[in-house]
């Protein structure tokens, strides 16, 4: 009789431990998934800031750069595309933002031909804000990718992969640079 009770007690203890482990793993996965969502929203905030700065930068430059209409159009179209990609997948947003980065780089390169514009205090302030925002975006991307790595690892590793499969936790995409030019080391020439 006692042996049956001990055996049942052991089974109940194992079931409770197993149940608590499942709860712990599930809650860990939910926490990591929420960290990924939060990191993505931080990127989104910085991208919004970037999108808001660009029209001011372009408007300030227009007065000086009368003959650069194509450059302004390219930046404006790339900004519109990037803003429209905001509700898409991580890959769509990354591609659109890569296009915007290209257009901005060409715009800022064109600015080099206008010394009076480069000396304009308002333009310099906006350019500094844009540089600061680009740094924030880079940091937010890194934080997002770090959280995605932790989350994806947890989903793929045993025993959490079993719980992840049972509750349909899906892998997240990394925010990757699609444009090969952005991966190249910039060359400085004097």
Q: What labels would you give this structure?
A:
single chain, about 190 residues, mainly alpha, de novo design (two linked rop proteins), about 80% helix, about 0% strand, disordered C terminus
Q: Major sheet, described briefly? A: none
Oligomeric state as shown? single chain
Distance between the termini: 91 Å
Kindly name the structural category: mainly alpha
Explain this structure:
This protein is an all-alpha fold. The protein has one domain: LemA-like domain (de novo design (two linked rop proteins), Up-down Bundle), CATH 1.20.1440. The chain has 7 helices and no strands. It has helices spanning 2-62, 69-84, 90-111, 115-118, 121-156, 160-166, 180-183. α1 runs antiparallel to α5. The chain is rod-shaped and about 95 Å long. The N and C termini lie far apart (91 Å). The model is unreliable at 185-190 (pLDDT under 50).
Q: In terms of topology, how is this protein built?
A:
Elements: H1 2-62, H2 69-84, H3 90-111, H4 115-118, H5 121-156, H6 160-166, H7 180-183
Helix pairs in contact: 1-2, 1-5, 2-3
């Amino acid at each position: 009789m006692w042996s049956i009770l001990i055996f049942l007690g052991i089974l109940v203890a194992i079931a409770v431990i197993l149940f608590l482990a499942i709860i712990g793993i599930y809650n860990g996965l939910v926490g990591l998934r929420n960290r990924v969502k939060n990191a993505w929203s931080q990127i989104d905030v910085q991208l919004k800031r970037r999108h808001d700065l660009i029209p001011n930068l372009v408007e300030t430059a227009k007065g000086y750069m009368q003959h650069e209409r194509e450059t302004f159009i390219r930046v404006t179209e790339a900004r519109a595309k990037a803003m429209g990609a905001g509700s898409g997948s991580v890959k769509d947003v990354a591609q659109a933002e890569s296009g915007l980065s290209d257009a901005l780089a060409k715009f800022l390169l064109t600015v080099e031909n206008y010394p009076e514009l480069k000396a304009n205090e308002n333009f310099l302030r906006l350019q500094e804000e844009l540089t600061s925002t680009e740094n924030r975006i880079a940091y937010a991307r890194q934080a997002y990718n770090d959280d995605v790595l932790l989350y994806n690892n947890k989903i793929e590793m045993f025993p959490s992969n079993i719980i992840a499969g049972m509750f349909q936790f899906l892998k997240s995409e990394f925010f990757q640079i699609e444009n090969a030019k952005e991966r190249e080391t910039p060359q400085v020439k004097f």
